[in-house]
UniProtKB/TrEMBL annotation:
Protein name per the record: Protein nucleotidyltransferase YdiU
InterPro entries: SelO
Reactions catalysed, as given in the entry: L-seryl-[protein] + UTP = O-(5'-uridylyl)-L-seryl-[protein] + diphosphate; L-histidyl-[protein] + UTP = N(tele)-(5'-uridylyl)-L-histidyl-[protein] + diphosphate; L-seryl-[protein] + ATP = 3-O-(5'-adenylyl)-L-seryl-[protein] + diphosphate; L-threonyl-[protein] + ATP = 3-O-(5'-adenylyl)-L-threonyl-[protein] + diphosphate
Binding residues annotated for Mg(2+), in chain numbering: N295, D304
Primary role: Nucleotidyltransferase involved in the post-translational modification of proteins. It can catalyze the addition of adenosine monophosphate (AMP) or uridine monophosphate (UMP) to a protein, resulting in modifications known as AMPylation and UMPylation.
Molecular function terms, GO-annotated: AMPylase activity; ATP binding; magnesium ion binding; manganese ion binding
Cofactor(s) for this UniProt protein: Mg(2+); Mn(2+)
Species in which this protein is naturally found: Nitrosomonas nitrosa
Key words of the record: ATP-binding, Magnesium, Manganese, Metal-binding, Nucleotide-binding, Nucleotidyltransferase, Transferase
A Pfam family recorded for this sequence: SelO
HAMAP family: SelO
Family of the protein in this entry: Belongs to the SELO family.
Active site as annotated: D294
Length: 529
C-alpha cells in the first residue's frame, strides 16, 4: 500500500501538486446490512437469459455478494425491446407485472449471482474508496454469438459501499441516463446502454421528495480505472492487480495476451480506446461532466450519465455540472483529464511492466505521453469527415480550428452549423454574410475543390457524420419533468424517437433542431445522488 504523495508517473500538465495520505480503514464486510432482506424468489428463464458469471470467480475482496432490496410497487416506465432483442432476450414474453418485478430486482433471473463491485476513484483529483453504493450486478449474459454483457440494476438499494446513502435513485435521472445513453449509441459512440426503467412505488429524498426508480444498465463490463486503484490499494504485493489485469486481457483485450509485455500492451490498448472515445465526444459537442477515475471504463465505453449535456452554442470552456465550480471537467479539458486518469491506471500496473521500478516508470510514461497525439489523430480524422474531406492536407487542422474560433466568437450553434454546411447551406441568418465566415467559407470551398471526389460526395460524407439532432438540454429537461412530475411519458418517447435517428432529418423532428431561447437555456445539470 502506498499513499498519493508517492505517486510516481509524471503528467505535468494535468496532475495536481497536492499530496494526500489516504488510509484504508477496513475491507468492506461480506455481510449485508441488517435492514437488507435478500430476495430469493427467482423468475423462470422464459425470456432467454444465458448467465455465465465470471467476475464472481475473482477473489472475493473484489465484490460483496448480496441481493437487491425489494421495492413495494414496481411498474415499468420504459422498456427497450430493441436492445432486448439484440441480446437474444424475448422481453415480450413477460407480462407487465413480471417485467416490473424482474427489472426492479424483486425477482431474479435464473443463474443470477448478484454482487456489488468494489472500486475506488479519484474524484476531482482526490482519492476515495468507493464501490457500488446503489447498484447490483446481477450477472453476465451471453448472447448467441458469445458476446458478454453485464446486467446491472442501478438504484437497487443500500450496499456496504453506500457510505450513508439511501441506495436508491430518482426517476428523472434514471430516465435521463436511458435517453442520453441510447442517443449516444445512435451517434455511434461506445456506451453503456439502458434496458429498462421501472418506478418503485417509493419516494426518495433529494432536494425534495421525488418518485423512485431503478435503471437496468447493460455494459461490456463495469471494470473501471477505479477498480484497478482499489485492488492496488488492497494488495500491496501486486498479485491482485495481476489477477485483475489477466482477467481484463482475457475479457476485453485478448489480442494483447501474446505480446512481449502484455501488461504494457494492455495499457496501450486502453489508451487507444479512450483517446478514440473522447475524440468522439468532442466531435458531437458532448460534455461528460464528471470524469472521475471511477467513471472511466477499461473497456472504453461511456459510463455514468449524471451531469452530462450536449452544448448548443459552441464554447470550449462550457461546464454543466452543478458541482464543477472550477471547470475541471469542462468540454475542452476532457482530453487532458482522460490522460490524467490513464496515468492513474498506469500507476497501478507499474509492478507488472518491469521488475526495475525506474524502467517500469519509463515504460509507463512513454505510453501515457503518446495520448495527446493519438487523440489528435482521432479528432482530426473525425473533423475531416465533418468537413467533407477525403484527403489529408497540412492545413486541415487550422481550417477546422478557424471555424470553431468563429463559432465561439459568434455563439453559433455547434450542431446546426455543421449540419447546415453538410446540407449545402450556411449558418443562420445574419452570420452567413459576416466577413470572417465568408473568408473561411472560401478557403473551405477551395479545399474541397483540391480533392478528386465530387462535392456531392463530400456533402454525403458530411451528412453521415454531422447529426441533425442531438438531445438538447431544454427538450431533455421538459421531457423528464413531464414524466417525473405529471406521469406523462409522451414527450420522452417523442424525443427518444428523434435522438435515436440523429442523422435522419425528418420534418416531424424539426422542433428538436431548434436551439433554446435565452429563457430556455439549461446551465446546470445534476448527478441525482
Amino acid at each position: 500500500m502506498r499513499d498519493d504523495k508517492n505517486r510516481i508517473l509524471r503528467c505535468e500538465a494535468y496532475t495536481s501538486n497536492k499530496a494526500m495520505t489516504i488510509s484504508i480503514d477496513r475491507t468492506p464486510s461480506k455481510t449485508q446490512p441488517n435492514d437488507m432482506k435478500p430476495n430469493k424468489q427467482y423468475i423462470s428463464n422464459t425470456i432467454g437469459w444465458r448467465f455465465d458469471n465470471s467476475y464472481i470467480r475473482l477473489p472475493d475482496s473484489f465484490y460483496v455478494q448480496l441481493h437487491p432490496v425489494p421495492v413495494p410497487a414496481p411498474r415499468v416506465a420504459i422498456l427497450n425491446h430493441a436492445l432486448a432483442a439484440s441480446l437474444g432476450l424475448d422481453s415480450h414474453a413477460l407480462s407487465d407485472e413480471e417485467a416490473a418485478s424482474l427489472f426492479a430486482g424483486n425477482t431474479l433471473p435464473e443463474a443470477a449471482q448478484p454482487i456489488a463491485q468494489a472500486y475506488a476513484g479519484h474524484q476531482y483529483a482526490h482519492f476515495t474508496m468507493l464501490g457500488d453504493g446503489r447498484a447490483i450486478l446481477l450477472g453476465e449474459h451471453l448472447t448467441a454469438a458469445g458476446d458478454r454483457f453485464d446486467i446491472q440494476l442501478k438504484g437497487s438499494g443500500q450496499t456496504p459501499f453506500s457510505r450513508r446513502g439511501d441506495g436508491r435513485a430518482a426517476l428523472a435521472p434514471m430516465l435521463r441516463e436511458y435517453l442520453i445513453s441510447e442517443a449516444m449509441h445512435a451517434l455511434g459512440i461506445p456506451t453503456t446502454r439502458s434496458l429498462a426503467v421501472v418506478t418503485t412505488g417509493e419516494s426518495v429524498l433529494r432536494e425534495a421528495l421525488l418518485p423512485g426508480a431503478i435503471l437496468t444498465r447493460v455494459a461490456s463490463s463495469h471494470i473501471r480505472v477505479g477498480t484497478f486503484e482499489y485492488v492496488a490499494r488492497l494488495s500491496g504485493d501486486g498479485e491482485g492487480v495481476k489477477t485483475l489485469a489477466d482477467y481484463v486481457i482475457q475479457r476485453h483485450y485478448p489480442d494483447v495476451a501474446g505480446a512481449d509485455n502484455p501488461y504494457l500492451a494492455l495499457l496501450q490498448a486502453v489508451i487507444a480506446r479512450q483517446a478514440s472515445l473522447v475524440a468522439k465526444w468532442l466531435l458531437v459537442g458532448f460534455v461528460h461532466g464528471v470524469m472521475n477515475t471511477d467513471n472511466m471504463t477499461i473497456s472504453g465505453e461511456t459510463i455514468d450519465y449524471g451531469p452530462c449535456a450536449f452544448m448548443d452554442a459552441y464554447d470550449p470552456d462550457i461546464v454543466f455540472s452543478s458541482i464543477d465550480h472550477h471547470g475541471r471537467y469542462r468540454y475542452s479539458n476532457q482530453p487532458h483529464i482522460a490522460q490524467w486518469n490513464l496515468a492513474r491506471f498506469a500507476e497501478t500496473l507499474l509492478p507488472l511492466f518491469h521488475s526495475d521500478p525506474q524502467k517500469a516508470v519509463a515504460l509507463a510514461e512513454e505510453a501515457i505521453h503518446r495520448f495527446p497525439a493519438i487523440f489528435q489523430d482521432h479528432w482530426l480524422t473525425g473533423m475531416r469527415k465533418k468537413l467533407g474531406l477525403f484527403t489529408e492536407e497540412s492545413e486541415d487542422r487550422m481550417l477546422a480550428e478557424n471555424l470553431l474560433t468563429w463559432m465561439h466568437q459568434h455563439q453559433a450553434d455547434y450542431t446546426n452549423t455543421f449540419r447546415a454546411l453538410a446540407e449545402e447551406g450556411v449558418p443562420g441568418e445574419g452570420l452567413s454574410n459576416e466577413r470572417e465566415f465568408v473568408m473561411w467559407y472560401q478557403h473551405w470551398q477551395a479545399r474541397l475543390a483540391r480533392q478528386p471526389q465530387s462535392k456531392q460526395s463530400s456533402f454525403s460524407l458530411m451528412q453521415a457524420h454531422n447529426p441533425a439532432i442531438h438531445p438538447r438540454n431544454h427538450h431533455v429537461e421538459a421531457a423528464l419533468a413531464a414524466a417525473s412530475e405529471q406521469g406523462d411519458y409522451s414527450p420522452l418517447q417523442q424525443l427518444l424517437s428523434a435522438v435515436t435517428h440523429p442523422y435522419t432529418d425528418m420534418p416531424v423532428h424539426q422542433i428538436y433542431r431548434t436551439p433554446p431561447s435565452p429563457t430556455e437555456r439549461v446551465y446546470q445539470t445534476f448527478c441525482g445522488t
